[in-house]
Write a structure and sequence with these properties.
Blueprint: H1 8-18, E1 40-41, H2 46-54, E2 61-63, E3 68-70, E4 73-75, E5 85-88, E6 94-96, E7 104-109, E8 112-117, E9 120-122, E10 126-131, E11 134-139, E12 142-144, E13 151-154, E14 161-163, E15 166-168, E16 181-183, H3 190-193, E17 205-207, E18 210-212, E19 219-221, E20 229-231, E21 234-237, E22 245-249, E23 255-257, E24 260-263, E25 266-270, E26 282-284, E27 287-289, E28 297-299, E29 309-310
Parallel strand pairs: 1-2, 2-5, 3-6, 4-7, 5-8, 6-9, 7-10, 8-11, 9-12, 10-13, 11-14, 12-15, 13-16, 14-17, 15-18, 16-19, 17-20, 18-21, 19-22, 20-23, 21-24, 22-25, 23-26, 24-27, 25-28, 26-29
Length: about 325
């Protein structure tokens, strides 16, 4: 029997998370609920898990068993605005795709209104991919030992959140594709994913995550994406990375705020790689330690005339003013 009757405390939390579609809520700590008492525990095989997810209906609460699910999971059913579907687990629950050279460990494909929380994901070319999804919360997940990117919101995925999660050891097969958290897709891939139109993966929020040991950017925001927030994350780009910045912003109207960034190269970079993109970023309140010969914040090339703002409250860990390519704005 499905656990469709959500406890009142859980229902209240879900309503807070759901929010109004079409606007960016104020950035603040976000957390999906822990697995509530009475959640339906899924069987211990990946086939059991896939069947449960396929049959899920609005308001269902599914709990992973404390085991390793060997295989890949596809989420394509949808909850509702008032009754999202919850897929949760403990730190002892894991989805292991088994091969870091191919596939997606968790693919959210065209689904809406899910809260996915609390377990680990490993063993695939891409850890989590969300395609054409909306109102998905990925919370308190561990994504590790991935061949390419850890978490990718793509193909017009909107109004979704990655929060309180740990992403580490990405790019172990293909270093240049080893981003930690990746939003949108490059212009060269728009014909593949979005009918040759910009990949408008808009109004997404990246809040309170820890990203480390990536071979590409800790956070990469592509041209085509607008109106998102990256706030209160701890981001480390080591000297083994094959890129030059911990955070790369190529979309429009992104707010990059309150992050702790440690980089062997540039800390935060804003670029224009496609006409009409790479504009109006607001960069404020970050603590950034970059390479001694690199900018902590670099609004580069043509992006310098696109209205981005660097606030004067960005500092190094010692409290010094950061080195930036544009004068700061109080």
């Amino acid at each position: 029997m499905r656990a469709r009757h959500i406890p009142l405390a859980l229902a209240a939390t879900l309503l807070v998370l759901t929010g109004a579609a079409g606007c960016v809520p104020p950035a603040a700590p976000v957390s999906a609920p822990s697995c509530p008492t009475g959640a339906r525990v899924v069987g211990s095989s990946i086939e059991d898990l896939q069947r449960a997810v396929d049959a899920a209906a609005p308001g269902d609460v599914l709990r992973l068993a404390d085991t390793t699910y060997a295989g890949r999971l596809v989420v394509s059913a949808s909850g509702s605005d008032a009754a999202p579907i919850v897929l949760c687990g403990s730190a002892q629950a894991r989805i292991d795709g088994g091969d870091a050279t191919t596939g997606y460990a968790l693919h959210v494909d065209g689904a809406a209104h899910w809260r996915i929380a609390g377990f680990a994901i490993t063993g695939a070319s891409k850890g989590i991919v969300a395609d054409a999804a909306s109102d998905i919360v990925f919370d308190r997940l561990v994504v590790e030992d991935i061949g390419e990117e850890g978490i990718h919101l793509r193909s017009g995925t909107t109004d979704s959140t990655v929060s309180n999660s740990s992403v580490r050891r990405t790019g172990i097969v293909t270093a240049e594709y080893g981003e930690g958290i990746y939003v949108g897709s490059a212009e060269s891939n728009w014909c593949r994913y979005t009918g040759c139109e910009p990949d408008r993966s808009d109004r997404n929020r990246l809040v309170g995550n820890t990203v480390s040991d990536t071979t590409a950017e800790a956070i990469d925001i592509k041209e085509g994406s607008s109106g998102g927030v990256a706030e209160a994350n701890t981001l480390t780009l080591s000297d083994v990375a094959v890129v030059d910045s911990a955070v790369d912003v190529k979309g429009n109207d992104w707010r990059i705020a309150g992050n702790r960034v440690t980089s062997a190269g540039i800390g935060i970079e804003v670029q224009q790689v496609a006409d009409g993109w790479g504009g109006r970023a607001v960069i404020e309140g970050n603590t950034i330690d970059a390479a001694i010969d690199a900018y902590a914040i670099d609004v580069a090339g043509a992006a310098r005339t696109q209205g981005s703002v660097i606030r004067c409250d960005n500092r190094t860990a010692s409290g010094a003013e950061v080195r930036a390519s544009l004068a700061c704005t109080p």
